[in-house]
Amino acid sequence: MTVLRIIVLFLLAAVAEIGGAWLIWQAVKEDRGWLFAVLGVMALGAYGFVAALQPDANFGRVLAAYGGIFIAGSLAWGVIVDGFRPTTWDVIGSAVALAGAAIIIFAPTAGSSGTETAG
């Protein structure tokens, strides 16, 4: 259940942060109005709370791993919402970032038996 919880929380955090940033981008760059900016700020605030729900108590580890999720999620958001077409290098870079995130979060920590996840 812990692995599922970690994955779900990372996905929720990605939607909140990327969605919030996108809303602010729309307000500023696309003149969509201040309501978009306010909703974006609220979504970014929600991201902070969702990230804090991760079972791992190490802020640096959680945020470092989230960086990989953010990279992949940002590209996926661009494809789904904005019609962005990633290059092969975008996909490879995203896969490397996700692999790094998985290593950070799921690798055994000092003192573990090697079968436990971090956190």
TrEMBL record:
Pfam families: UPF0060
Sequence intervals crossing the membrane: 6-25, 34-53, 59-79, 91-110
Full protein name: YnfA family protein
Cell compartment(s), UniProt: Cell membrane
This protein's UniProt keywords: Cell membrane, Membrane, Transmembrane, Transmembrane helix
PANTHER family named in the record: UPF0060 MEMBRANE PROTEIN YNFA
Cited InterPro entries: EmrE-like, UPF0060
Record family assignment: Belongs to the UPF0060 family.
Membrane topology type: Multi-pass membrane protein
